[in-house]
Design goal:
Blueprint (H helix, E strand, L loop, with lengths): L4 E5 L6 H12 L2 E4 L1 H13 L7 H7 L5 E6 L2 E6 L2 E2 L7 H10 L3 H17 L2 E5 L2 H5 L5 E6 L2 H14 L6 H17 L12 E4 L5 H11 L1
Parallel strand pairs: 1-6, 1-7, 2-6, 7-8
Antiparallel strand pairs: 3-4, 4-5
The structure holds 2'-deoxycytidine-5'-monophosphate (DC).
2'-deoxycytidine-5'-monophosphate binds next to helix 2, helix 4 and helix 8.
Length: about 220
């Protein structure tokens, strides 16, 4: 009873997860990273030699994919078929695959059900692409985070380097542009600002400023 949701959407690298995590911590509610779920589906496909670009192939194995979200010390863990895959889903191959499987209607329906269930039982800060427009249309606060492509590529690059993943800046930028295009042009629940979302361009803002803005909105 009395649960509320904050929806944070936007393109890859706009700062959603960093911001959402901090807002959740401040409010002492849970943070849900929905991108991790699509990433886990992509990881399953890669590990089982399923072509993630093939709707038919992915649909065929969808029933074999069990995804659970747990929380440990304010950090989300993503469990794929009883295995914690949180640290395995950040590769560029998984990024590409996640954007591909996310275009498949049956995949989205399955993920959205899990997401809505979590929000039904908890107050949440949830980030993704379609949270304000489709998953949680009644969210109390909706934020659409953006930043220039260059800035977003810089952030992703830094993030991957810090995780010890080898990567090339220009390639990351190209991948981000491709993913943006793919995510915003898909037919069902594309990346889009909700009419009642507040847009925040984070290109020239620091993390604390964005967090403050969102708390103020509340
Ligand atoms: O936020 P992320 O980069 O981890 O998301 C990975 C991919 O998953 C993204 O390219 C599109 C898809 N996605 C989605 O379609 N809807 C969401 N709510 C979250 C992610």
């Amino acid at each position: 009873m009395g649960h509320f949701a904050i929806a944070i959407d936007g393109p890859a690298g706009a700062g959603k997860s960093t911001i959402a995590k901090l807002v959740a911590k401040k409010l002492n509610i849970i943070y849900v990273d929905t991108g991790a779920m699509y990433r886990a589906v992509a990881l399953y496909c890669i590990e089982n030699s399923i072509d993630y670009n093939s709707k038919e192939e992915v649909e065929k194995v969808l029933d074999n994919i069990d995804i659970k979200i747990t929380h440990k010390d304010n950090n989300q863990r993503i469990i794929l078929n009883n295995k914690d895959v949180t640290d395995l889903i950040r590769s560029t191959e998984v990024s590409k695959g996640s954007s591909a499987v996310a275009t498949i209607y049956a995949v989205r329906i399955k993920m959205v059900e899990i997401q809505r269930n979590i929000a039904k039982n908890n107050s949440v800060v949830m980030d993704g692409r379609d949270i304000g427009t489709y998953v949680l249309p009644n969210a109390k606060i909706k934020v659409f985070l953006t930043a220039s492509v260059d800035e977003r590529a810089k952030r992703r690059h830094k993030e991957l380097i810090e995780k010890g993943i080898k990567c090339d800046f220009e390639q990351i930028k190209k991948d981000i542009e491709e993913r943006d295009k793919n995510d915003s042009t898909r037919e069902f629940a594309p990346l889009k600002k909700a009419d009642d979302a507040v847009e925040i361009d984070t290109t020239k803002l620091n993390i604390e400023e964005v967090v403050e803005k969102i708390i103020e909105l509340l």
